[in-house]
Amino acid sequence: MHPPSLTGALVLVAVLAAAGAFGWWRRRHDGRLRAVRERTPAAPGRTGSGAAGDPPHRATLAALGVRPGVVTLVQFSAPVCAPCRATRRVLDEVTGRLDGVALLEVGVDEHLDAARDLDVWRTPTVLVVDAAGRVVRRAAGVPDRAELLAALAPLTAGAAR
User: Fold this and answer.
1) Which end of the chain, N or C, is surrounded by fewer C-beta atoms within 10 Å?
2) Would you say residue 47 has pLDDT above 60?
3) In what order do the strands lie in the sheet with 71-77?
4) Residue 107 is inside which H or E element, if any?
């Protein structure tokens, strides 16, 4: 008889440790608003930049319905996405609390090119677009209500109550 091999047990422990680390990382980053750095030149094949001086993706955002002069929350969602419904509830509550903030829900299945242009790779994804038409923050997953309110406060400071 051969002594029992520990290789299988070690592989199992390694896989469980990797899965646990990934779950911890995902939970810490899911739904967190992060600042978006503005790209100066458009990447090859990108359609989002317009005239000189325009924010990147202005044409794409305008085609989706983002109006100039209005702070807009753009939610990319899919019909079979359960977290998208939770995100919609959070965004409805936030836009109900703040004047001067519009909400736009975009179906990725109908607007696949726009999703690609805006680097949306999962649903839900929320983009915070300032009044100048720049994407200033983004979150993949259900955003935290308090964090979203804090991010919108400086953008809506001039909105009339």
Assistant:
1) N
2) no
3) 34-35, 135-140, 125-129, 71-77, 101-107
4) strand 101-107
User: What mean pLDDT, rounded, does the chain reach?
Assistant: 83
- Give the pLDDT score at 111: 95
Buried b (16+ CB within 10 A) or exposed e, 135-158: bbbbbbbbbeeeebeebbeebbee
The CA distance from 73 to 95, in Å, is: 8
Q: Which domains does the chain have, with CATH numbers?
A: 31-152 (3.40.30.10)
Rounded Cα–Cα distance for residues 94 and 49 (Å): 29
Asked if residue 79 lies in contact with residue 109, where contact means CB atoms within 8 angstroms, the answer is yes
Separation between Cα atoms, residue 157 and residue 15, nearest integer Å: 49
Query: Tell me, what's the pLDDT at 25?
Result: 72
Res. 46: pLDDT tops 50: no
Q: Is 161 helix (H, G, I), strand (E, B) or coil?
A: coil
Are the beta carbons of 134 and 158 closer than 8 angstroms? no
Q: What is the CA radius of gyration of the chain?
A: 20
Element (H, E) at 64: helix 58-64
Which runs of consecutive H residues, i.e. helices, occur in 98-154? Answer: 112-117, 145-152
